[in-house]
């Protein structure tokens, strides 16, 4: 199959159904499908340009993983194994293994391009729901771990304009996820951990923003997310255009937001992570990707969507951490309005009274959502 036909949809991430939200979610799902088909047609002619970006990406990811392996005292020349398969719908995405294994005893191919050549994960993204726990005013920074325990993850995303086939340069990529026990930083509510803990408003862990470089690439060092009731393990993102970084490390601007969405990981990887500490202390019910409405009915079913990170372990143990990457195709002419109920100010975090979209978690002490 030609590379251009492997361009796929991601981030049609609508939140888990709440009572009364079914009609709105159905309308959003239909809108997402329409955006997907329009973006897919726009990218059909992008083959040559994207292949060049992709080739540089293989070199970049190879160098990045080598750097992190050296830091962990792992042999750089160990071979890699990467399965490349074409994904088509929810079932095939769930069955696809996105792992490239760095293990000399298991590797069948030592060519780095075989490991990192994930062309089939190139994605086209409509708008997804933002959920209730987006915090406005977070810091521009690449290492967002703070003191959170858990498995280290180096994330890379490459942003591509579906209209020009060029990398999106100078966009701010804003991400956030819950911690190992399913709690989001920066918010205070009974739906999220200890609702009486006001100190969590000033917590910025696992939240941050990065500016895309000349290849449209952003990179973060974070922790593998935990889970909460009603949702599969995932990571949120908002993309900002025409914003300006202030001296205090935050961004401001009257530009546009061309994308809101979510990413996922292989169920096999999630199972491995959940078997380690501190994830084992999370007593909330784990929702599988196959049962997550965002992943399935609203994201991959009936499309060529694959919103799942490719990944490779740094060593032969999950405790060594992993490198994850994905391509993100965005219609830069689109404009959405992210809603938020909390913001980070010069005086710390505070509630705003604005309403976030559906899809919030059922943290400890909170109802499943």
From TrEMBL:
It comes from the Eukaryota. Residues 1-17 form the signal peptide. It comes from Pestalotiopsis fici (strain W106-1 / CGMCC3.15140). SUPFAM superfamilies: Aromatic compound dioxygenase. Residues 350-363 have a biased composition (Gly residues). The lineage of its organism: Eukaryota, Fungi, Dikarya, Ascomycota, Pezizomycotina. This is Intradiol ring-cleavage dioxygenases domain-containing protein. PANTHER family: INTRADIOL RING-CLEAVAGE DIOXYGENASES DOMAIN-CONTAINING PROTEIN-RELATED (PTHR34315:SF9), PTHR34315. Pfam families: Dioxygenase_C. Residues 141-232 form the Intradiol ring-cleavage dioxygenases domain. Keywords: Signal. The keyword Nucleotide-binding does not apply. GO terms for molecular function: ferric iron binding; oxidoreductase activity, acting on single donors with incorporation of molecular oxygen, incorporation of two atoms of oxygen. Residues 345-369 are annotated as: Disordered.
């Amino acid at each position: 199959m030609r590379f251009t036909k492997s361009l796929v949809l991601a981030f049609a991430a609508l939140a888990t159904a709440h009572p009364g939200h079914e009609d709105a979610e159905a309308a959003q799902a239909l809108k997402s499908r329409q955006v997907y088909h329009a973006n897919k047609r726009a990218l059909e002619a992008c083959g040559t340009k994207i292949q060049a970006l992709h080739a540089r990406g293989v070199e970049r990811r190879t160098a990045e993983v080598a750097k992190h392996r050296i830091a962990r005292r792992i042999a750089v020349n160990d071979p890699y194994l990467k399965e490349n398969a074409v994904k088509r719908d929810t079932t095939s995405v769930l069955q696809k293994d996105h792992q490239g294994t760095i293990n000399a005893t298991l590797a069948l191919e030592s060519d780095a391009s075989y490991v990192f050549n994930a062309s089939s994960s190139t994605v086209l993204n409509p708008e997804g729901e933002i959920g209730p726990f987006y915090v406005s005013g977070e810091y521009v920074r690449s290492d967002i771990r703070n003191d959170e325990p858990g498995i280290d993850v180096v994330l890379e995303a490459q942003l591509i304009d579906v209209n020009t086939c060029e990398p999106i340069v100078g966009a701010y990529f804003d991400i956030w996820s819950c911690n190992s026990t399913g709690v989001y930083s920066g918010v205070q509510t009974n739906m999220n951990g200890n609702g009486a803990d006001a100190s969590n408003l000033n917590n910025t862990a696992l939240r941050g923003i990065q500016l895309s470089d000349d290849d449209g690439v952003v990179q973060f060092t974070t922790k593998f997310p935990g889970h909460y009731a009603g949702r599969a393990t995932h990571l949120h993102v908002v993309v900002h255009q025409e914003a300006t970084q202030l001296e205090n490390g935050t961004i401001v601007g009257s530009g546009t937001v061309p994308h809101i969405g979510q990413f996922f990981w292989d169920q096999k990887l999630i199972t491995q992570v959940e078997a380690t500490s501190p994830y084992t202390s999370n007593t909330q019910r784990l929702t599988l990707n196959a049962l997550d409405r965002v992943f399935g009915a609203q994201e991959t079913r009936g499309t060529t969507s694959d919103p799942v990170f490719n990944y490779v372990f740094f060593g032969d143990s999950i405790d060594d951490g992993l490198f994850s990457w994905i391509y993100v195709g965005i219609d830069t002419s689109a404009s959405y309005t992210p809603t938020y109920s909390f913001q980070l100010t010069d005086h710390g975090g505070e509630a705003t009274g604005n309403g976030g979209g559906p899809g919030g978690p059922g943290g400890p002490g909170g109802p499943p959502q």
